[in-house]
């Protein structure tokens, strides 16, 4: 799959995640927030919690499940980016967490799985 197609699929997954969090009553604070050393797909405020949302989209035929793409190094980058965002937005006092939206699609493009996995950062 080429890079442009991967970006389109990723953007569709992020749009699905955004709509999902809006349906929960979340306020979308940022999309694709970037800072040196990290990036956040979405930043939302949900029930007074600052939530960084990582969106992973995979095909059912892929060898790796979406949640398997979150390793120690990826978590470090997410935490760094969230700390930077919280500092810039004057939200350091808010409780924060990192959530994963795991999306799997069939080869036909149909949605196989959409799962919200809250608080993936270990205590």
CATH class division: Alpha Beta
Query: What level of helicity do the residues show?
Result: 25-40%
Largest beta-sheet characterization = 5 strands, mixed
Quantity of strands, as a count: 5
CATH architecture label: 3-Layer(aba) Sandwich
Cα Rg: 14 Å
Oligomer: single chain
Summarize this structure as a short list of keywords or feature phrases.
123 residues; alpha+beta; five-stranded mixed sheet; 2 helices; 31% helix; 37% strand
Description:
The protein is of the alpha+beta class and 123 residues long. It has one domain: Trna Endonuclease, Chain: A, domain 1 (3-Layer(aba) Sandwich), CATH 3.40.1350. The protein contains 2 helices and 5 strands; from the N terminus they run αβββαββ. It has helices at 3-23, 72-88, and strands at 27-35, 38-46, 49-59, 96-105, 111-117. A 5-stranded mixed sheet has the order 1-2-3-4-5. A hairpin with a 2-residue loop joins strand 2 (38-46) and strand 3 (49-59). It is globular.
